[in-house]
């Protein structure tokens, strides 16, 4: 895990779960782009999110929620002015 990315995502979360908004000192970093070797390769501030333990467990057990987070990451990248090919490159080659 890249410590600069971790710190930037933690700062963005400001002590709150980025899914439910719960204030907690026990936030966990979730990689939105996952799969064999993909977490590290595609790790960025836009493709990571801080979650409380409950939401983190839920994301890993809920395909709809996981897809919603992928769409959120894509939107963050789109808001930076990236085009579809650039977004694919940052999302492991796939759009959702």
- The sequence of SSEs as H and E is HEHEHHH
What is the total domain count?
Answer: 1
Query: Which structural category fits the helices and strands?
Result: mainly alpha
Query: From the alpha-carbon coordinates, what is the Rg to the nearest angstrom?
Result: 13 Å
Largest sheet: 2 strands, antiparallel
Percentage of residues in strands: 5-15%
Average pLDDT works out at 94
Shape: globular
Number of strands: 2
Number of H/I helices = 5
Please give the share of residues in helix. 40-55%
What is the strand arrangement across the widest sheet?
A: 1-2
> Ends: how far apart?
24 Å
- pLDDT < 50 stretches: none
What is the topological layout?
Layout: H1 3-13, E1 28-31, H2 38-41, E2 48-51, H3 53-60, H4 63-79, H5 84-90
Structure description:
- There is one protein chain.
- With 96 residues, the protein is mainly α.
- It has one domain (3-90).
- Helix content is 49%, strand content 8%.
- It is built from five helices and two strands, in the order αβαβααα.
- The chain has helices at residues 3-13, 38-41, 53-60, 63-79, 84-90, and strands at 28-31, 48-51.
- Strands 1-2 form a two-stranded antiparallel sheet.
- The chain is globular.
- The chain starts with a helix and ends in a 6-residue tail after the last helix.
- The relative contact order is 0.17.
